[in-house]
Write a structure and sequence with these properties.
Blueprint lengths: L3 H4 L7 H23 L2 E5 L10 E5 L6 H8 L4 E6 L8 H8 L2 E3 L6 H12 L3 E4 L15 H9 L3 E7 L9 H5 L3 E5 L3 E3 L8 H17 L20 E3 L1
Parallel strand pairs: 1-7, 2-5, 2-6, 3-4, 3-5
Antiparallel strand pairs: 6-7, 8-9
């Protein structure tokens, strides 16, 4: 159940009308964007995605097409977060606006983005977050936004590991002959409810524990600052 602090519902958000539009755009993603611009090999763990209801998905962001690949792999529509300046792109920005993604300003706490995330989750949809905030070949220390949103909204959290998207889009036949994109969807979990007030130290621990779960799903060369799996704990995590 979405907590009152994040709920703050808005009459402007119409889930049904947007979903109709998104399913039309899904045809563009599945039949053109992925087919001609990214080599897609496999998706594993689809049984870990809830058939209905809200969830926060988070992923390791290594290439531009990662969100598109996850959206293609999922049988349900997903609402990604994106950097606000991406909406200014004359081509990609048009697609983002039509899908009604959630733009995020990365230079400060974006309360408008938090409000929109709450509305999307309240409507029973799934959002997609890159906790690191930008693309990296290996994991960097994640920002605490994922823990804040997931804890306050009290919805399932699902790790998504991505591999093989680097180098796309490309016209190189050599790259197309190599391994393509692979998506692994991990087991859902939630953050345990605290008996005290949520503090920055709690958010940091929640975030790092979630990132270690993601790191375990990745090959060693992708784990970055979360490479030492012996340091992983799950004190704030409850698997569903």
């Amino acid at each position: 159940m979405i907590t009152a602090r994040l709920r703050h519902r808005s009459k402007r958000y119409n889930h049904q009308s947007i979903e109709h539009k998104r399913w039309i755009l899904r045809g563009l993603i599945n039949n053109y964007l992925v087919r001609f611009f990214v080599k897609f090999d496999a998706v594993l763990g689809l049984e870990n995605l809830p058939a209905r209801g809200p969830a926060v998905l988070f992923f390791n962001h290594i290439a531009f097409f990662d969100p598109i690949v996850v959206m293609h792999a999922s049988p349900r529509n997903i609402v990604p977060l994106t950097k606000a300046e991406g909406l200014n792109n004359p081509i990609i920005g048009a697609f983002l606006r039509l899908w009604e993604v959630i733009p995020v300003r990365r230079d400060a706490i974006d309360r408008e983005a938090l409000r929109k995330m709450a509305e999307v989750l309240e409507a029973g949809e799934m959002i997609l977050m890159a906790p690191e905030g930008t693309r990296h070949a290996e994991l960097q220390q994640a920002r605490e936004g994922i823990a804040y949103v997931a804890y306050r909204s009290d919805v399932p959290v699902i790790p998504v590991a991505i591999e093989g998207t680097e180098g796309f889009p490309t016209l190189s036949l050599k790259r197309w002959r190599q391994a393509g994109a692979k998506v692994i969807i991990g087991k859902p979990f939630c953050f345990k409810r605290l008996s005290s007030r949520l503090r920055p130290a709690h958010l940091r621990q929640m975030t790092d524990e979630a990132m270690y779960i993601l790191a375990k799903m990745l090959p060693p060369h992708r784990r970055g600052v979360y490479a030492d799996l012996n340091s992983a704990t799950t004190e704030t995590i409850q698997f569903l």
